[in-house]
Amino acid sequence: MDILCICGARPNFMKIGAVVEAMRPHPELVPSIVHTGQHYDERLSQVMFEDLGLPRPEVELEVGSASHALQTARIMERFEPVIAERRPDLVLVVGDVNSTVACGLVAVKLGVPLAHVEAGLRSFDRSMPEEINRVVTDSISDLLFVSEASGVANLRREGVPEENVFFVGNVMIDTLLRHRRRADRSTVLARLGLGPRSYAAVTLHRPGNVDDPERLAGLLAVLLEVAGRLPVVFPAHPRTLRRIEEFGLRDALERTPGLHRIDPLGYLDFLKLMAEARVLLTDSGGIQEEATVLRVPCLTLRENTERPATVDSGWNHLVGTHPDAVRAAFERVLAAPQPSGEAPERWDGRAGERIATTLRELGLAGVRRLQARRGGA
User: Fold this and answer.
1) pLDDT digits (tens, 9 = 90+) for 73-95
2) Can you tell me the distance from the alpha carbon of 144 to that of 152, in angstroms, rounded to the nearest whole number?
3) Which positions are annotated as active-site residues?
4) Do 321 and 302 form a contact (C-beta atoms < 8 A)?
5) Nearest to 232 by CA among 245, 242, 219
6) Is the pTM of this model over 0.90?
7) Taken in order 73, 369, 158, 304, is the CA torsion positive or negative?
8) What is the C-alpha to C-alpha distance for residues 260 and 189, in angstroms, rounded to an integer?
């Protein structure tokens, strides 16, 4: 079974890495990586591939940055000839980025079965571009590999046939557990002059938070206050840094003692940074998951989450974006005892293995049968 595995943005690398690694013991599964170039920082992409031990992509589309519509269109335009030339047996997409929906649409329009890893997640907030990508991709996928129980319930409610849905667990956690020991050897804390459990780590990148000048200013004001209590490490996403510059907010960050505004980190360094933090503040979906398994309190700076299992675990706190709510949540986390919740079901490092086993057992005939069940070729 010739399988094109699509990645484009930073979180995709961790997910694809787990799936490709799990396929290696199965010679009948032949994965090839297609890198769309949606994440256009080549230096960071190179670091991620090296950290994760991924083979270099066989196909690079090099689409770069653009608006959602233009980027999606470019990916579709450049991926269509790849399908025509390679004629794969399956296209496998992960997550909820533009590369996911764009390559998925090309595959199904050309009659190629589509598998979606991390299917069924829902924030129920259509103002999020990622939610649109999730809903569309799930609606056209033939094999839906689900990471948490809420995804199974969501797909059932949307009428997806039960036999097309596979509850396999979380491939992000496969990668985390596989590389945890290597990450422990990272020197990132020494380079920053920090000790374990002595700092807060922050990521901000969602358009709803960083494209609104008033909201971004409010969140940054809270970070400056937090930096008065704990050192704050802020690996700034390029998009966020551009907005900070545009809105005239950089001077306050640079002048604040205790706030370390650094460039984005490679996977191993960032994993070490998360694992040793006292608290994480983020609007990232993946970090909510990783914090849950690392058992680090996480304050999610959003009004909703598509990963409710992380909240149920007790490690993730959905606090919204109002500065007063973030301040109060931060104080509660510092004062409260550590929660005792366990990782969600099947977040055990074997999700990729379950995906590979499912594909091997189905075989091409089984995949085609599921494609027909969904109304495909």
Assistant:
1) 999 999 999 999 999 999 999 99
2) 9
3) 205
4) yes
5) 219
6) yes
7) negative
8) 12
